[in-house]
Write a structure and sequence with these properties.
Layout (H helix, E strand, L loop, with lengths): L2 H7 L6 E2 L3 E10 L2 E8 L4 E8 L7 H19 L9 E7 L2 E7 L3 E3 H4 L8 H20 L2 E2 L8 E4 L8 E3 L6 E2 L20 H4 L6 H17 L10 H10 L12 H7 L10 H13 L74 H33 L2
Antiparallel strand pairs: 1-2, 2-3, 3-4, 4-6, 5-6, 7-9, 8-11, 9-10
Organism: Rhodococcus rhodnii LMG 5362
Keywords: ATP-binding, Kinase, Membrane, Nucleotide-binding, Serine/threonine-protein kinase, Transferase, Transmembrane, Transmembrane helix
GO molecular function: ATP binding; protein serine/threonine kinase activity
Length: 394
Amino acid sequence: MTDSGQAIRGIGPEYLVAGRYRLRHKLGGGGMGAVWLARDTLLQRDVAVKQVTTTVGLDPDEARAVRERTMREGRNAAKLTHPHSIAMYDVALESGEPWLVMEYVPSRSLAQAMNIAETLPPIEVAQVGAQVADALAAAHHAGIVHRDIKPGNILVADRGRGLGTVKISDFGIARAKGDAADAADSVITGTPAYFAPEVARGKDPTEKSDVFSLGATLYTVVEGQPPFGIDTDSIALLHRVAKGEIRPPTQTGPLTEPLLHMLEPDPARRPTMAQARDELAAAALGPSGGVEQIMGQPIYSATGTVPAWASHGTPLQDSRRSIGSTMSGLPPARPAGSLDDARRPVQPLVWPTRAEPRTLRDKIVDSAPIAMSVMVSILVLAAVVAAIVLVIQP
């Protein structure tokens, strides 16, 4: 909806949606609508409320399609309950139009993070990838294909108790098995820079397409540009994507093998999302680590702290970079070459040492030597007292 359209309907800060959600301020927006920070007046908690593009002025069929797509997004997101996915709370009807009510996470996206750091270290990207892959594996198990994985849809909490927590968001064009097709299915949707080759050739997105898109996203934040480079001509970009002309990575280090596996042009040769998760986790943890060590945890840098780019204390810089589109201020694309030329890792990443929470058992074990010394001292003292008593007795 345009700002003038909002003014006519009175939608703005303090507006009460469905008699329950009071809008505070906009968090972001685009062609599909706007996302607001709002207060749930019933449960007294902050939520994110997605206002879809208004259907006012549309013909009945088009208006119905917009509402159905919004409801489908709500249903699909509600099927997924995962610590690394934004939770869907409610679909509120306001003047006959659906608003999506979601978990609010104060955060910045990977696209925003790249306005702070030109590229992100492989050890951090490996953790992000494994956590997002775990959430998407759960979505695939529920029969949901995301279809729009990109840096702008991966969020990292930048403050509060959840600092460093990773979440996948925006199931706006996701499809679930059994969803009825609509006219929009004949149009390629998503972001071309992260398309799988088969999608660029016009095939329907699948779970394996999501694997490729996640691989392309992780490649981008490590290398500083998408695997197909940057091109202001979206048609030329689509042609390169369709041919699978991936530029060999040069900075991915131990992530090289997992990423090249995910970026296989042939979907039959790509891993499942669960396999990709395990390979990404192994790149971060090494062969002796387990994927459960990083699930539900904040991401950590090589020094064992949450990365500076993920902290609200590190301000975002003004930048022309737009990683989610074909327009960018990034450096010129490197020439294409054979993936066999990609540099392979020499050794796995070294997982940072982190202080683990101490349990009651740990504290008891730590205090055992002191307790033993005290008991021995008491016994010795008791023996001395007893000896003295025996000596002085007549």
